[in-house]
Amino acid sequence: MALTHDNDLIQLQIDQPPADTNKTAANGAPAGEPETWNSTVPAFNPLFDHTPEPEPLAVSPDLVAELADPAFEIEAFLAAERSKDLLRFSTAGSVDDGKSTLIGRLLYDTRSVYEDQVRSIEGKGSAGAGVLDLALLTDGLRAEREQGITIDVAYRYVSTARRKFIIADTPGHEQYTRNMATGASTADVAIVLVDARKGVLSQSRRHAWITALLGVRHVLIAVNKMDLVGFDQAVFDRIVSDFTAFFGSIDFGDEVGTGNTELRFVPVSALAGDNVARVSDNLPWYNGPTLLELLETIPVSVAELAQPFRLAVQRVVRPDQHFRGFAGQIASGTIRVGDPVLVLPSGRTSRVASLVTFDGNLSEAAAPLSITLTLEEETDISRGDLLSSVGEPATVTNQFTASLVWMDQQSLDPSRRYLLKHTARTIQARVSRVEHALGIDLATQATDTLALNGIALVEIETVLPLAVDTYASNRTTGSFILIDSETNATAAAGMIRSFSALPRTPQASDGPVTAAERAHRWGHPGAILNLRAPATLINAVERALFDRGVFLLRADPSIAPTLAAQGAVALTAEPADSQDFHATIADLSTAGTLTETSLSDAAASVLALLRQFEQAASEQTKGSAL
Amino acid sequence: MAFAVLDHPLSPVTSPERLSHLRRLEAESIHILREVAAEFGRPVMLYSIGKDSSVMLRLAQKAFFPGPLPFPLLHIDTGFKFEEMLSFRDEMARSVGAELLVWRNEPAIAAGTNPIALDTKRCCGLLKTTALLDALAHYGFNAAFGGARRDEEKARAKERIYSFRDRAGQWDPKNQRPELWNLYNARLHPGESIRVFPLSNWTEMDVWQYIHEENIPIVDLYFARDRPMYLRGDALLPVEQAFVARSGSDGKPEQPTMVRSRLRSLGCSPCTGAIRSDADTLPKIIAELLSFRTSERANRAIDHDQEGSMELKKREGYF
Q1: A597-619 burial, b for 16+ CB within 10 Å, e for fewer?
Q2: Cβ atoms within 10 A of the Cβ of A10, count?
Q3: A261 CB near a chain B CB, below 8 Å?
């Protein structure tokens, strides 16, 4: 083993023992085979006396010096740690762009891996004799080690003196678009890798496109493998201009596009470490910061603070008769005691009476804090309601245009209903129209369906109204997922681009008669009942329900929420040729095949659904009295 | 292109400073705990008594304050936990006011299962994995919180926060549900369940700093004390279970030695090595952590019994 000092970091070189030596490791592992990867002998087990002491390998001299310094004060260190903030970034790049190597390099050069983890990859992989294949530090799953590619999102954690980082290391294959979107969905910053030898390929464009689609505000383009193009500035400059031109032309079907996104370019060699965590002598023409410096200094979005207040109610907290609080995480903005809030979709207003936390009441709280708040007026609020700023409210709508990334093996079926989860609310929805899909070449193409990893602009209709914002203005209230209600698979991720507001729905509490009084009179709560079956069956079921005393009205889908909000069962009928009988209440669904003789069964099952719905509704109202 | 929003100057009145990393992690974890409690009929919190469980329990108290925990705690007791851990467990449950369930694979324990009689792999399989699956089935829990973190192990780095398990409790790493934003898919078919990891994004350092900042009680075994240890090579094996002691060549039983030492992570006493340490306060533990050059699980024999061993255990139903 040889250690050489280079640019303030100890550069590591591992001298591989010749293959023919008979030297074996302390635990009996064959020569050159690290102990922890020996399949039969545990590396450390007091029972078996195996205690391999790792040799010092990667040691950052600044930390060693810091710890050895008699002036090092752990209390001062802890105080500095306390105010560190957190940056989430994702990575995108093609299989051969060296993405895992780059992450491995970042982990390694920021002393974020331990020696036993480094030892476990010694002599493995494809980096050549004596060179660590740093990609192995991140490629966690067996299949990946076997195939040599990253097939899923891996999360990594790096801490430097300035910031803590959460890294979503995502795969670059076109068929793994969904994983890339997953990693980008929570990222403040994205690193897109471009192979200097290949220039801006269609894959790189697609990665950048998806990154911007998911609303990542800062995109760092790491032009990798500069060592393989002789650290040539002309190559770098060409990639910068190609990429910038392409990026400016991206259109998401809204007015914002990539207008909120900032691009930065860094020339690097992940394999050798040039410009990743340390300044490279090989790039004298580049005067900008290293990739790590950029990550440490980029001003992280304070957009969530500047946006108007939004909080989706996750739970109603009701430990006793005297306390009724609404628990949720502040999605954006700031809230103070005494502030008015608008409850959506009902449209009622109230004032904040207190902001309650385990650590004491607050006078004000801001995103992304998780809090419990109480309101001055006793209000009928349940899980899924959105508390919103009165001055800049979210929009209530049941129809919007959205970008959709399809994530399921089963393609989109526009005739089917999906479950749509938006903030803390799950309701039925349908993709009523596919406006256009995005081809591999990023050109738009007309289609009426969408397959795995496809991206499209679509029209969505929901059964019940939602309180939404555009994704460009709010990542939390502008996003949703679609769930296949039969397989329960997460079918798609959606970003709301535009919508038209729905007129406010009258509520049961608008007049003198309460919802409870209505439910008591009619024996059931209000609900939207959607029946899809042959007309004769729908007629017969309606008759059977009426005969059983259900307050049932036929309604157009646009008026149904109004009736349901006031206690009626609004029947929206969809005559169909198929003998399949589908009955849906709010987010509960049942399906089956019916014959003329089991009409009474159909009515019974619909009633059972109503009771289920009633129970769910009353549990929500009672909240967490558990 | 411009930083239109990002460079917006912060007005001190309307925009408080960005939250620190610990507050952000805390807020995310509380959101997860509340989502699960709201969306699953039968949640339970796996309580392992270790430092991560202690943090998870505190986060749950915060999530449901001023109400009680809306789920019980479940401890899978292998029979090989340290006595100190068990008394700490009972005291914590009492002080938090949580219902505590303890499950042991009694038939296997009665049959003398231990890591010497069997190998560590089969011992874990019986006393941990089988016991856990039996307990979940017995009580009908469909969501179980665990304190695992993604920085612990490479297979865990790829696991979702909502980790879906099939009817046999098994994890399929190639068929995980995509998890975007903070929108978790909670839909299950009957018999299926999820494991939920609210601490997924915490690191070992975060956990220790949070314990320090929040004054969270932890088992004293984490602090350096003079403790009797069997010395095995460089390894320190706590004196806890009689069967661990060996007899020397002269036929006399092995004699423990007093060593200033502590445990870095808590597991079953026969398979958890102690480390020599003088760290008897939280700041000292954190300083020691900074100087560590091996990851904490290197001291846990069970991770090394075969290549990719955590991934294999998880596929079988291990947490």
Answers
A1: eebeebbebbeebbeebbeebeb
A2: 16
A3: yes
- On chain B, the residues whose CB falls within 8 A of the CB of A300 are 6, 18
Backbone phi, psi, residue A585, to 5°: -120, 120
Partner residue opposite B10 with nearest CB, options A51, A302, A424: A302
What is the residue whose two structure tokens read 């982990």? A107
Same domain? B54 vs B152: yes
Give B-chain residues touching A263 at CB under 8 angstroms. 1
| Number of domains forming the structure of chain A | 4
Please indicate, yes or no, if residue B7 is contained in any of the structural domains: no
> Residue A379 — very low, low, confident or very high, per pLDDT cuts 50/70/90?
confident
DSSP assignments along A280-305, one per residue: -TT-TT--S--HHHHHHHS----HHH
Q: Tokens standing for A330?
A: 């502040």
| Residue range A538-551, pLDDT digits in tens | 888 888 888 878 88
Contact B27 A368 (CB under 8 A): yes
Asked whether the beta carbons of residue B5 and residue A44 sit closer than 8 angstroms, the reply is no
Residue A493 lies in a domain: yes
In this structure, what CATH number is given to the domain that contains residue B90? 3.40.50.620
Position A148 pLDDT exceeds 60: no
The string of pLDDT tens digits covering residues B128-179 is: 888 998 999 999 999 999 998 988 766 677 788 999 888 877 777 777 888 9
Answer whether A37 sits within 8 Å of B155, measured CB to CB: no
Best residue in A164, A169, A217 to probe B by mutation, most B CBs within 10 Å? A164
Q: Distance of alpha carbon A626 from its chain centroid, rounded?
A: 30
Contact A44 B299 (CB under 8 A): yes
Chain A neighbours among B 23-82 (CB < 8 Å)? 23-28, 30-31, 34-35, 37-38, 61-68, 70
Q: In terms of domains, do B169 and B227 share one?
A: no
Domain closes at, from A499, A523, A547: A499
Torsion of CA A603, A608, A610, A612, to 10 degrees: -170
Residue A61 contacts B, CB cutoff 8 Å: no
Range of the domain at A195: 84-297
* CB pairs < 8 Å spanning A and B: 294
Q: Are residues B61 and B153 in the same domain?
A: yes
Residue pLDDT, tens place only, A274-309: 998 888 899 999 988 999 999 988 887 677 888 999
- C-beta atoms surrounding B30 within 10 Å: 27
Q: Are residues A518 and A475 in the same domain?
A: no
